[in-house]
Amino acid sequence: xxxxxxxxxxxxxxxxxxxxxxxxxxxxxxxxxxxxxxxxxxxxxxxxxxxxxxxxxxxxxxxxxxxxxxxxxxxxxxxxxxxxxxxxxxxxxxxxxxxxxxxxxxxxxxxxxxxxxxxxxxxxxxxxxxxxxxxxxxxxxxxxxxxxxxxxxxxxxxxxxxxxxxxxxxxxxxxxxxxxxxxxxxxxxxxxxxxxxxxxxxxxxxxxxxxxxxxxxxxxxxxxxxxxxxxxxxxxxxxxxxxxxxxxxxxxxxxxxxxxxxxxxxxxxxxxxxxxxxxxxxxxxxxxxxxxxxxxxxxxxxxxxxxxxxxxxxxxxxxxxxxxxxxxxxxxxxxxxxxxxxxxxxxxxxxxxxxxxxxxxxxxxxxxxxxxxxxxxxxxxxxxxxxxxxxxxxxxxxxxxxxxxxxxxxxxxxxxxxxxxxxxxxxxxxxxxxxxxxxxxxxxxxxxxxxxxxxxxxxxxxxxxxxxxxxxxxxxxxxxxxxxxxxxxxxxxxxxxxxxxxxxxxxxxxxxxxxxxxxxxxxxxxxxxxxxxxxxxxxxxxxxxxxxxxxxxxxxxxxxxxxxxxxxxxxxxxxxxxxxxxxxxxxxxxxxxxxxxxxxxxxxxxxxxxxxxxxxxxxxxxxxxxxxxxxxxxxxxxxxxxx
Length: 643
Hints:
The chain has 643 residues and is an alpha/beta fold. Helix content is 28%, strand content 16%.
């Protein structure tokens, strides 16, 4: 494997620390005014900050971050000795939802990054990209209103920014020969210090069993799944450095790697953006940014010359807007907040990936090795720990969570897919779709219109599409496959906690409220059960323990699904959707908040609905695309040719 010397050196410097000298901790340390203020130093926010400070060396950029700079270990770094758990991590917000009525009143548990680097510093490091059909479906939902916008968001428009956002390094030849990794370098090509790579270690004796079972089911092996075509069996890179195997995140790649050479780039930590303020009304932006010191609880306003960008994530972006008087008017009045802009979509349209698992055991594994259980052997554990500290790193601790997955279209999962499509189209046609929305916005015409359009597009461009995945099943080893529903139909809300408006918001997961989701969960579960009876599994004596052979009727399976449901795979999204205002949208194609001058949103809250992937790579790509839009706008405003 060829690695440029600059890459090796930069990793050694960046993997362990972020420079502290330039970090601001008090309002008194700031400049009198900034050109751009970014609320949130996470995955997308730091991407935008990096690009703006480079493009405009004479313009100042301030990032305000709730958390601090912390080392961010990978998902399975030593000293963790039980593979599959969650080890040490940087700080995070812990969000627990209200009980979910349709899933036995269970509550969802979600972690979101509270650290410089945001959720890229705490996530599972799975670094896949969506199917091209997701992006084109999002465009369809916003059509025809956004058709004439110069800011385009189809797959073809965004794909170059996926490529730009990451530096991929092919694995060593020995790992390729041992594990059979495949990839296509043409889908990468970036030079950004955000790294992805394949680990030099797998629990190799079990991974082939799982991969073989999917091949027995007819799932095609794909050379590469990051180029937009994703229906098949995929190798997935992880967000780690290819030499040190340490986590790669935006705090390293978009702050630490560039800050020393950017005197126009300031980062203020341990401060909360409470709201944005329009002293002369929302047409007179950019707004002031009100921030609260988490140390001494003082409030201060910071002013921007050009614009303000909110990048606080799907939980906290809508609450900043709601505290600012931008959101559903009925809710704001209930909260005693003056309505500045009535935007019902703020904090609405919320959903997350969810799904149950199928579980099995083996009777005939023999002497397969290495297995995760080998970590209980002190000699094996000591060697694994030593290997992680070598350069290049080696051994089990380089694995993170998983780097294999299958993505299968609904038409390949069940012969009843057309019935599911027809059922969705029927609820759109007869108007019953609105009855499945949260009570506090089901009577809002713009939210109903947007939801019906989403359902129509998901049904006819995703579920009926033989190339658009409906299920994801990641795996590395173990005794379970998760059935992740990639395009749920149910919706929830994120609302300001009226009694504690600066604290964690009140989150309502609507999981299962649209009954067609259970049709999909059921089809997915039946499909995964089939893989346990494949030749690859039978060879090792695989037998199902959950649901188990006694669970055969649809009613019994649905009870199992509810009992085993993971309500959140920690991919919250869509609470400030990039849709027309008349479809419940919050931002336009240029990411400007409808009716709010000088204010944009750039994070995963702008997605209209979930993609067929984890969210990290898309958060980087959206940040890159947003920066491009902002840079072109300000160049054109000054009459300067865009370089």
